[in-house]
Amino acid sequence: MGERRTAESVLERGLFASRWLMAPMYLGLVVALLMLLVIFFRELAYYVPQMLTLSPEKTILVVLTLIDLTLAANLLLIVMFSGYESFVSKFDFDPGTDRPGWMGKVDFGGLKMKLIASIVAISAIHLLKRFMEIGDPDLPAPSEGHLFWLTVIHMTFVLSGVLMALMDWLQARSAK
């Protein structure tokens, strides 16, 4: 009986320690965040010299691209911090007043909702950019089929988000 208990304990400790296998993945997301930063500044460096000659429509497209990159970076931060705290380990330092308000408070359900909301926002910006390109003489007009599928994909993300929120609401209601 004691030998079985020891084997079970070793297995459980090993399974619990395996959560640290996720840590390199979160470090990889830091590299992805750095990639987004480089691309953001590359876009900025490309368009700033053209600032005085850009049309209002092209300026809006540039701004939407920068917003898109920023939203993706925010999404990465949320996944990195919340995922690490939820699945690997709590942060052991005191960031003081610099700590974001949501940090340490976002559980898996909250993370899931923030993730889908970010995906919907990114999809909406991408779709808006494609619609705005319709009148741009410098760009080839997107085909109706392309716009149709972008809209279908966006609406699928929206519907998925609504269904996830509904499932969370039903689950919380049934727990009461």
TrEMBL record:
The keyword Cytoplasm does not apply. The keyword Phosphoprotein does not apply. It is a multi-pass membrane protein. It is found in: Cell membrane. It comes from the Bacteria. InterPro entries: UPF0114, UPF0114_bac. One of its GO terms (cellular component) is plasma membrane. The chain crosses the membrane at residues 20-40, 60-81, 148-170. Belongs to the UPF0114 family. This is UPF0114 protein G5V65_07080.
